[in-house]
Amino acid sequence: MADQTTTAWPANGPADLISPGRKRAGFALMAAATLGLLAVIGLQTLYKNEIITFGFETWRPIVYAYVLWGMALGVGQVLTRGEDGQRALFLLPALLFTIAMVIFPTLFGFYIALTDWNLSSFSGRKFNGLDNFWQMLADPYYRNALFNMVLYVLAVLVEYVIAFGLALLLNAQIRARKFFRVVFLMPLMLSPVAVSWMIGKSLMEYRFGPAAALARYLGWENPAFFSNPIIARISIMVLDAWTFIPFMMIMLLAGLQAMSRDVLEAARVDGATPWQTFWQVTFPLMLPVSVTAVILRIIFKLKLADIIITVTSGGPGGATDSVSSFIYREYRDRSNVGYGTMLAMAYLVIIVVFVTWLLKFANRFVRNVN
Amino acid sequence: MRVGLYEKLVRAGASRRDILKGAASMAAIAAASGAGLGAFTRPAEAASELRSQILQIPGVGKGQPTDADFQKVGELCLAATKANVKEGEFAGVELTFMGLNNQNLHNVLFRGFLKPWEAYTGAKISWIDLAQADYNARLQQSIATGTVDFDIIEMGAPFEGDVCGKGLTSEMPDWVKTQIDFDDLVSYLKPPVGTWDGKQYRVTVDGDAHNFNYRTDVFADADLAKAWKDGGATTEWGVPKTWQEVQAVTKFLKGKKFKDQDVFGYLDAPKAWGGFGFYFLGSRATAYAKHPDDKAWLFDADTMKPRINNPAWVRAIQDVIDALPSEPADQINADPNTTAFQQFLAGTGSMVTWWGDVGSNVKTNDSSVVGDVTGFSILPGSDDVYNSKTGAWDKLASGPNYAPNCAYLGWGVYVMARVDADEKKKKAAWSAAAHLGGKDLSIWTAMYPSGFQPYRNSHFDIPEWVAAGYDEAFITSYLKSEADSYNHPNAAIEPRIPGIFQYYSAAEDILANTFAGKMKAQEGADAIAAAWEKLTDQIGRENQIKLYKASLGV
User: Fold this and answer.
1) Are A159 and A252 in contact (CB under 8 A)?
2) Residues A313 and A358 in one domain
3) In chain A, which residues have their Cβ closer than 8 Å to the Cβ of B272?
4) With an 8 Å Cβ cutoff, is A159 touching chain B?
5) CB A274, CB A230: distance < 8 Å
6) Contact A120 B140 (CB under 8 A)
7) A153 and A82 inside one domain
8) Quick one: DSSP state of residue B378?
9) pLDDT at B16
10) In this predicted model, what pLDDT tens digit does every residue of B298-357 receive, in sequence order?
């Protein structure tokens, strides 16, 4: 036993056992790979800016250089840090992948947002500082879309109430409960584009849609669901809610099923009415699940675009436009890449700030209530 | 089949493979052989027989053509290809073709037409299908990012500035011009359309102009005529000839019944449609804005200053605002696809402007209920026309001003320059394009739902349409509206300038707000003008002026 204690690895053992020559080789490899990568990037940048006359036709070699650099970095870690380096290898590929696929594109996106880049322009992309940002601040269409987003997000509260009601129903001892659970989930399985066509452009169609026919039968003379700004906005909210209420419902149902029956029975023994049981026991206990469901739904809602693009194109007069559908038109129909990217980046910042605040607020709210 | 017949066909020039290809192929060869001549020399009589034969596939009034029909037609029209290409000559060549799939037309037909071509030549085609609204973005991204991943493209002339102007297309070889009988094109589709810097790039497969489609039964109805007179009208009840009359009729028909159904007048398309919706305001505006003494109508030719906020265009915008309350209740949410295919063909509305697709669909589209009651004319005129040079409204001595909107100038098939490095691939690409733009095949696309309208002088032979099964009065009216639009001396020609759809798309957003009542007509027009000025500066004003002038021929 004593022998085993003396031969065990010390806390920083592997690093100490690495020979200086191996360490030097590791550092040299990483330095060479880094220099190589920087040299290739520098060369290609100079070539693309027409400062030198030789370079690569595309930027693809930079990707290959990055991959090689990553591999050299991994080998270098092992050479210089031994087992610590091997541990780092578990993380390094994911880190390099995230840098390549998320961090770099985001930073590049911020750069594009600072350029004047219309795809039809003869002069190509031009840096124009904060011009796009100032333009965005003065853009009534963007402001209108942001305002609509506020309304769409507020509609989540109504969706939550309905979803909670449905979850309570499906949690009760009703006949064919399993069948209803599957049926209620079906809208979530449908593509929003399919929903747009099946419901928005077929069922709710003014001339032949059954929903319009029913509305006429009920006395609505001109059942145009997408012509009046308020009705159109509500119609879009209903379409979106129909698709996503099952998502919240299933989360709430899972919460209800996980709730201890003892608490409910104790409340009943204490003489609580059904309403008191719900309001003072079930609802507070469900708050953490509710907050999670609502926040996830809000995140989905902030990306609302497909139904609007398919059914109304943002109309009438921008009444149903969401930020995403507006950016889609700006970028896609007008090939205005620089400005479209600025709108998207600004929206990203707004979402990050809003969701961070929302999470903090929700945490505090749940803590205070419980 | 009998050996004797087989041997006769082989002597006539057909290979064993041709003969074994099936009944459709046999029918074509037999038809040519029956004339006592080689199947592939295409004498006039054989060509005429071939045309008669393909026009019976599936037959006018016998339902919509299917993929099997497209393939039959493609196979029967292969003779021109066979004259220039040996069997199996393009074996191993792979081409990528990018085009539209609107209403299951365009690429869907091209696939069928080119299947026999692939079988004969040995080439293989992969397809990129795009919805109309996605087309512009996909094309612009490919150009700007240097990722042209297609060898052949179906493209409209308005994009020639973006594509041909940047050296991305292959110049048409002379043998293609001969194969497609280039001189047969109607004159407005001849160069400069399809060319850039004097070089020919396009195989035209379509002619485009907005015409005016109306319901003959509505405008011949005695009860409506009486109500019209009783309402104090001083003119006779009939098809409107001017936009002023269109407005009056649309307002008059509000709330009226015809055949026990609500009857509506003109159908506007206020909803955005990827930029293409702007053409429909254009059709309302040309009679006001296109002066016979001035080729320009959208911008000032010397400065690219937009004319969209001049009194002519503002009047057109105001017309839409005034007419919308008299149109169906959900009209604000109608895009052009809705007005033509869901409303007019289905019996809603009595007047609509569109490309010639309405005419080619009323008789052959399964959802059409107005096949026997549709008439056609060039776009309505105006009692007066705005003179941008003097700033006054002119009344012409000749009467109302007419200015057909030659919107989009038709689709064409273009070969990309990336095939130029490989002679075999280049010939294959041009052969495929020439097959689609072939003279005989084109009469079939003009007569059946295809997304394409007549575009050749040979398409205006009325007896040929009548022989194919069209009603003479109907087809005379339709073809006359098309021919008169193409050949009109005051036609408003689409500017082939880079980014034209960005101008249209920017306008659509502002127009949507204007039509929804958020802005007055003049305010909306001013906002569009400001957006267009900015766009011109962004793309490059000097270049735009040069290209705009070139497209106007000034």
Assistant:
1) no
2) yes
3) 313-315, 329, 333
4) no
5) no
6) yes
7) no
8) S
9) 41
10) 999 999 999 999 999 999 999 999 999 999 999 999 999 999 999 999 999 999 999 988
Pairwise CA distance, residues A187 & A316, whole Å:
26
- Superfamily of segment(s) B211-407+485-552: Periplasmic binding protein-like II (3.40.190.10)
Interface list for B 499-538 with A (CB within 8 A): 499, 501-502, 505-506, 508-509, 512-518, 535, 538
Among A139, A152, A318, A236, smallest CA distance to B517 is for A318
Q: Is A288 an interface residue toward B (CB < 8 Å)?
A: no
How many whole angstroms separate alpha carbon A208 and alpha carbon A200? 12
Distance from CA of A291 to the nearest CA of B (A): 37
Whether the ipTM is more than 0.90: the answer is no
Interface mutation vs chain B, best among A193, A333, A339, A343, most B CBs within 10 Å:
A333
Domain with A198 in it: what CATH number? 1.10.3720.10
| Threshold 0.80, pTM exceeds | yes
| Cα B357 from Cα B336, distance rounded (Å) | 12
For residue A280, give its domain range: 134-369
State both tokens at A315.
């109309």
| DSSP H or E run through A287 | helix A283-302
- CA distance linking residue B345 with residue A140, whole number of Å: 38
Helix (H, G, I), strand (E, B) or coil at B268: coil
Residues of chain B with CATH 3.40.190.10: 81-208+408-471, 211-407+485-552
CATH of region B81-208+408-471, choose from 1.10.10.10, 3.40.190.10, 1.20.120.920, 3.30.930.10: 3.40.190.10
- Give the pLDDT band (50/70/90) at residue B112: very high
Q: How many CB atoms lie within 10 A of CB A171?
A: 18
| One domain, residues A89 and A214 | no
User: Does residue A125 lie within any of the structural domains?
Assistant: no
Cβ separation A118–B343 shorter than 8 A: no
Q: Are B433 and B442 in contact (CB under 8 A)?
A: no
Q: Residues 268 to 287 of B: which have CB under 8 A from any A CB? A: 270-275
As a whole number, mean pLDDT of residues A274-302 equals 93
Of residues B551, B30, B516, the one with CA closest to residue B270: B516
A93 and A162 assigned to the same domain: no
Shared domain check, A333 and A218: yes
